[in-house]
Task: structure prediction
Amino acid sequence: MDVMKVYNRLPVWGQNMACFAEGMRIRRTRYGKDFWQALNEYESHDKWSYERLCEYRDERLRKMIRHCYDTVPYYTKLFRDGGIDPDSIRTLDDLKVLPILTKAEINSHPEDFISTAVPKEKMITGHTSGTTGGGFVFKTTQQAVCEQWAVWWRYRRRLGIEFDTFCGLLGGRSVVPVTAGKPPYFRWNKPNRQMYFSTYHMNEETLPEYIASLRKYNVRWIHGYPSAINVLAEYMYSHGVELPMEYVTTGAENLLPSQKEHISAAFHVQAYQHYGLSEAVANFSEGPDHVMYVDEDLAAAEFLPMGDDGQCEVIGTNLINYAMPLLRYRTNDICSVTETADGRIITSLDGRLEDYVVLPNGTKIGRLDHIFKDLVSIREAQIVQKSRDRLQVLVVKGASYDKDAEERLKKEMALRLTGIGIDIVYVDAIPRTKSGKLRFVVSEI
Result:
């Protein structure tokens, strides 16, 4: 059954009921007893020194390395074939003896990365896509999910955001059908205290409805993709509209200086940025002082220099997911980092910087990675907009890519983009920028 096709045919009240049910499922998965225990534990780490955090990280790393060697077929073979003693890896620096792991390599034989020690009934399926456009489905556990969300809520609570704070969310889910031509342009996720706004309907005609909804329900916290929040803020700034907020938080993309200015002018607050990955291999959080630190207690992040300009590639190792651990995983993200007595500080983040797709009616859509979320047979993809009424999707096929995968890709595109022509073009490789980054969306208009 095509769940989204059924959902899109429901009346608005029916879609709100479906969002309520999904919200309850999410709440049970993320915010059970394990979550609150983990949150208390992680918040106690705020009193620790940088040295103690690193010791804790390395303790977890040693435990994970031994687990990988003993129970994960890929790593057992890797260590034995390479003559690597797992007990010789004791600190973050010792990880350098291992090769860098890519998403494509995992997708080629995912079963080899699954631990034999974790019962299948305790595994949860996770999804990610990232800015290379290649889908990735992985296994995790409820404990790992709760720990990750505990660290993300630790970041929010540091800023003063409490768990029951009502949130206007601008993310990538298709909660409002793209064919919808009238408000409301949001749906309720009441179990998680969210008004989930569509990022696929934002244009000059509809944005006043977004603002009116935020005012009507007295929303004081906006969270989401900076590209989407910026569309709203830019409109407000250019039309002299102000809507004071207590908090604006962003994730999943780099927060640009121009976006910060628009957000500050429109909402009378500075936006805070957060970097996290579904795979839980690296995590950075910006504090009340607007300094972004590496969360050493959640994951083991390495920063490999790419040249003389100070930019580094982010390589991450999981410390919490015992179902499908990832060691030295290539995130395809780039940043600059400085080590201080208080911790490692991210001074710039170039990891998910994307252009917008502009629809013929003026709607700007900034993040479209959800299209490729489950398309693991696509190695890489890039959206190139040639004109206001047409765009190309460059696709590097994986070994299992077939006609069904192509049809799923067309369906996912149609769910999010309306009124614009789409050409799928198959290529052998997609060119990188000078810094080695694959831009997921490239605008030529």
